[in-house]
Design goal:
- With 342 residues, this protein is of the alpha+beta class.
- The chain folds into three domains: 54 residues; 119 residues, M1 Pyruvate Kinase, Domain 3, CATH 2.40.33; 91 residues, Beta Barrel (Thrombin, subunit H).
- The protein has three helices and 17 strands.
- Strands 3, 4, 5, 6, 7, 8 and 9 form a seven-stranded antiparallel beta sheet that branches. A six-stranded antiparallel barrel has the order 10-12-15-14-13-17. Strands 1-2 form a two-stranded antiparallel sheet.
- β14 and β15 form a beta hairpin.
- The radius of gyration is 33 Å and the shape is elongated.
- About 13% of the residues have low confidence.
Length: 342
């Protein structure tokens, strides 16, 4: 009785099942399906050791080269964690200011503008002033844009008032380098990109932003007592975010007028049961939760220990606000949490 043939589809292979190998000037199947002649057998016996030897030498030298390249790359890597904030963190952090920001120099267009609506690193853009207005080749500029929260929804009480006192919010978009100055138009290259640039963005003279060193993270104290120094609130995050964590940027409502300097550290913390947030929450949640028990007596927000959330380094300071990079966080840090100078 004949075996029944399987009705499954025949397999489709991406490579040939019987590849061809070349020995000398003759071609023979690498996997012969039939008999092997004496001539082919002798050719395999003669050439196979040579091929294996060549392959072994090639692998040996290849491995040595890879190890040399790897050691060269490793030697160029930093030995440990960074001791200062990264350039992108410093120059892409954004800022609040209550002072007037000059907007007489603008980004007006760029190459391929018939279909490009935004510009990023490496793109060529045009500025609204040229050599007649003092722009020259090699000049370096920063690009910013004034922004506000389009939702206009408060995350905590008094948020709108604190933002108003801090001033106007500007996002850092990147940097430009002038490559040619025509009489009334300058041609520039985007040399650093934080976010996309577009027509009408404000162009400011470049200025260095110093950055203080990071603290040793092992010195963070989650039970630290109050420092006794000025206190503030986390008002908002970068791009109007209402929540942040490690390596995120937030803005607090203390600035140069209150003695804040670049490189200072803020400690973020939270009280239980203050009800400053505008989102719905259970009343007196600090000592009772419906269906899950309650304490024998009621505790006000200032009766319980504060919860230390993290800390961050000051990157930028204006009169009434500071830009802070969170370097340590035990949990999410929300707009409406408190901050104090360490």
């Amino acid at each position: 009785m004949r075996y029944q043939m399987c009705k499954a589809c025949t397999p489709i292979f991406l490579t040939v099942l019987k590849p061809i190998a070349t020995f000398g000037y003759e071609i023979v199947p690498a996997r012969p399906s039939g008999r092997v002649s004496m001539k082919e057998f002798l050719m395999r016996a003669t050439f196979a050791p040579k091929l294996v030897a060549r392959l072994g030498v090639a692998l040996l030298f290849g491995a040595a080269a890879c190890m040399a390249q790897e050691s060269a790359v490793v030697s160029q890597q930093p030995a440990g964690p960074p001791d200062h904030p990264w350039k992108s963190s410093v120059y892409c952090s954004g800022f609040y200011t209550s002072e007037k920001v000059s907007d007489d120099l603008r980004l007006v267009s760029g190459e391929q503008s018939e279909y490009k609506i935004t510009f990023l690193y490496g793109d060529t853009v045009y500025l609204s002033k040229g050599s007649n207005q003092g722009i020259k080749e090699g000049d370096h500029f920063s690009v910013v844009r004034q922004e506000s929260d389009p939702l206009r929804v408060q995350w905590f009480k008094w948020q709108d008032k604190l933002i108003s006192a801090m001033g106007s919010h500007y996002s850092d978009l990147g940097q430009l380098t002038v490559i040619k100055a025509e009489p009334n138009i300058a041609i520039a290259k985007v040399s650093m990109s934080c976010e996309f640039m577009q027509r009408g963005d404000i162009v400011l003279p470049y200025s260095e932003r110093p950055a203080g060193p990071f603290k040793d993270p092992s010195t963070f104290d989650s039970l630290a007592p109050a420092s006794g120094k000025p206190k503030a609130m986390v008002v908002q995050g970068k791009t109007t975010a209402q929540m942040g964590g490690r390596w995120n940027t937030v803005f607090v409502n203390l600035g140069a007028k209150q003695g804040v300097k670049v490189g200072d550290y803020f400690r973020m913390f939270r009280y239980q049961g203050t009800h400053v947030e505008t989102i719905p929450s259970q009343k007196n949640y600090q000592d009772q939760v419906y269906g899950f028990g309650s304490s024998p007596k009621h505790y006000e927000w200032n009766d319980l220990p504060r919860e230390v959330l993290g800390e961050g380094i000051v990157l930028n300071v204006s009169q009434n606000s500071a830009t802070v990079l969170i370097t340590t966080s035990r949990s999410e840090i929300f707009a409406g949490d408190y901050a104090e100078l360490e």
